[in-house]
Design goal:
With about 600 residues, this protein is of the alpha/beta class. The protein folds into two domains: about 15-335, ABC transporter type 1, transmembrane domain (ABC transporter transmembrane region fold), CATH 1.20.1560.10; about 350-599, P-loop containing nucleotide triphosphate hydrolases (Rossmann fold), CATH 3.40.50.300. The protein is built from 19 helices and twelve strands. It has helices at about 15-25, 30-70, 75-125, 130, 135-180, 180-185, 190-225, 230-235, 240-290, 295-335, 395-405, 425-435, 450-455, 460-470, 475-480, 495-510, 525-540, 575-580, 585-599; strands at about 360-365, 375-380, 385-390, 410-415, 420, 435, 445, 485-490, 515-520, 545-550, 560-565, 570-575. A six-stranded mixed sheet has the order 6-9-10-3-11-12, sandwiched between helices. Strands 2-1-4-5 form a four-stranded antiparallel sheet, covered by helices on one side. Strand 9, helix 17 and strand 10 (about 545-550) form a beta-alpha-beta unit. The longest helix has about 55 residues, at about 240-290. The protein is elongated, with a radius of gyration of 36 Å.
Length: about 600
């Protein structure tokens, strides 16, 4: 398995990522304003509560003192009115909190949906070379883990920031209104809190970033293990795979443990600091009450406010960690969304007027620009010609096909269809021209009917069935338990390789392309199925320009043009008879296969 570069750095551009996130959220700004207003209302009503409760305590205390001194005693009616008013405030606060929670949840769900839609659209716009250097599991981790982490963190932190600020300001106002001296004494703990929060937050960011990175690598390992489990078992590589996964998972555990440990330190540290302030206020408040400078109810209110004062500070600490994790995920998402997309021309064409003339002019290409695979490829193919591309492994046969489909762009040179440079064509227009049947068949989890209809999404059932008949696969489908409605499993292992090949041919027939690309490898099927596949391919190629990646040279004797490739260049071209007469590279290749077959 490939080794991965593990990043332990902080977010490369915290401010830039935050700006992008705010810009993306701006479409919900009016709804978010309502959310914040309700959050502010809920917080304010909750803050006022302790002061009113203190008034009730003062009334009760004064009533007890009055009764002891022979007065009228406790006024339960007044105390009752205060408590009912307090209950109404708390109910209103709860309603405001509930409403803002419901609205915020709706916003986050829409935001997540929009983000996943953008990622899905982006996947289809990225060039093949991006996926060559990325594990599929890492891309999946962005779509799932990073989006979930961003959404969940955003839902919790957005309103918490507002409520924490309002709570802190509100509590300060209420504390100052009760007693200035005690408030100043309480604020002594503030610098200590800020220093501790800053220190822990700065240490935790790199571990949150590392945790998200390793999570992507772990997902990549799992995806590889499941997709290649047959190979793993065949080569007794279970222990190697387990060890690889163990290494990745251990690193994820270490990063996760450190990030959560630092995050978990916040609460006990802030509780300890808060208790120091609580002790200070209790001593000072008792002294001032003895001297008659403050009422008992106000002492109670102040102690409650003092206890609550550290909560928004602790919340800031938690939010700081959450935001660090959130920005780390957002950065990965925005990096993905910012990847360079495939560029296509804008030229539209009438597909019916395309004849299928294809020309390669001095094409050069390398997956790595410094190492050319195709060094100087030139060829002219006339409409309706059957062109076979032959050569040893690594000669560049498949690469030519990828360039023709514009899965990759040429480094230099030009590929034209009907005289039009394929770089100038609109992507959809370009892909409509081609039909592909490759050795590596691709079918998806779903009914056979829908797999075939993939070639032409608006095709009727009758058209699909007709294409299946042409591809020699209709009879086979009818023998299946549910016929055309049979569900192919995720790995399409519930049908044979030969039948999968026939299904892909039927799909190509349904698409009715002008140019065909065929990988005619049939080495993995029996002779009878090979004959069926060959017949279906012959019907498919009739009247169409066809490019055949030839493996068995005996199957391409009747090709109109054979291009012989070696090390990225065309070294010979002509018909089968012409090339045999030349007694060159092709003749040696053909004779070696013929001798092998005779053996």
């Amino acid at each position: 398995m490939p080794k991965h570069h593990m990043s332990t750095e902080k977010a490369k551009d915290f401010k830039g990522t935050l700006k992008k996130l705010i810009k993306m959220l701006s479409k919900y700004k009016f709804v978010l304003i309502i959310v914040f207003l309700f959050a502010i209302g809920s917080t304010i009503f909750a803050i006022v509560g302790p002061k009113i409760l203190g008034n009730a305590t003062t009334e009760l205390f004064n009533g007890l003192v009055s009764k002891i001194n022979g007065g009228s005693g406790i006024d339960f009616g007044k105390i009752g009115s205060i408590l009912i008013f307090l209950l109404c405030l708390y109910i209103i606060s709860a309603i405001f909190s509930l409403v803002q929670g419901i609205i915020m949840n709706d916003v986050i769900c829409k935001f997540s949906y929009d983000l996943r839609r953008k990622i899905s659209e982006k996947i289809h716009k990225l060039p093949m070379k991006y996926f060559d250097k990325k594990q599929h599991g890492e891309v999946l981790s962005i779509v799932t883990n990073d989006v979930d982490n961003l959404a969940n963190s955003l839902e919790q932190s957005a309103t918490q920031v507002v409520t924490s600020v309002i709570t802190l300001i509100g509590i300060l106002i209420m504390m100052f209104s009760i007693n200035v001296t005690m408030t100043i004494a309480s604020l002594i703990i503030l610098p200590i809190s800020i220093i501790l929060i800053g220190f822990v937050a700065s240490k935790s960011q790199k571990y949150f970033k590392r945790q998200q990175d390793y999570l992507g690598h772990v997902n990549g390992e799992i995806e590889e293990m499941f997709s290649g489990h047959n190979v793993v078992k065949a080569f007794n590589a279970e222990n190697k795979m387990i060890n690889n996964f163990e290494k990745e998972n251990t690193e994820l555990y270490k990063a996760g443990w450190k990030s959560q440990f630092l995050s978990g330190l916040m609460h006990p540290i802030m509780t300890f600091v808060g208790n120091l302030g609580y002790v200070m206020v209790a001593i000072l408040g008792g002294y001032m009450a003895i001297n008659g400078r403050i009422t008992v109810g106000n002492i109670q209110s102040f102690i409650q406010y003092n206890k609550q004062f550290t909560q928004p500070i602790a919340q800031f600490a938690q939010i700081a960690n959450m935001i660090q994790s959130m920005i780390a995920s957002a950065e990965r998402i925005f990096d993905f969304l910012g990847e360079k997309e495939e560029t296509y021309g804008k030229e539209k064409i009438d597909i019916n007027k395309i004849k299928g003339n294809v020309e390669f002019e001095h094409v050069k290409f390398g997956y790595n620009p410094d190492q050319l695979v195709i060094k100087d490829f030139s060829a002219k193919v006339k409409a309706g010609q059957k062109v076979a591309i032959v050569g040893p492994t690594g000669a560049g046969k498949t690469t030519i096909v990828k360039l023709l489909m514009r899965f990759y762009n040429v480094n230099s040179g030009k590929i034209s269809i009907n005289g039009i440079n394929i770089n100038d064509l609109d992507r959809d227009e370009l892909r409509k021209i081609f039909g592909m049947v490759l050795q590596d068949t691709w079918l998806f989890n779903g009914p056979i009917m829908e797999n075939l209809r993939y070639g032409k999404l608006d095709a009727s059932d009758d058209e699909v069935i007709e294409a299946a008949k042409t591809a020699n696969v209709h009879h086979y489908i009818q023998t299946l338990p549910e016929g055309y409605n049979m569900i192919l499993n995720e790995e399409t292992s519930n049908i044979s390789g030969g039948q999968k090949q026939l299904l892909t041919i039927a799909r190509a027939i349904l698409a009715d392309p002008k140019v065909l690309i065929l990988d005619e490898a049939t080495s993995s099927v029996d002779t009878r199925t090979e004959i069926l596949i060959q017949e279906a391919m012959d019907r498919l190629m009739k009247g169409r320009t066809s490019f055949i990646i030839a493996h068995r040279l005996s199957t391409i004797k009747n090709a109109d043009l054979i291009l012989v490739m070696s090390e990225g260049d065309i070294i010979e071209q002509g018909t089968h008879e012409e090339l045999i007469k030349e007694n060159g590279f092709y003749a040696k290749l053909y004779n070696s296969q013929f001798e092998k077959n005779n053996d």
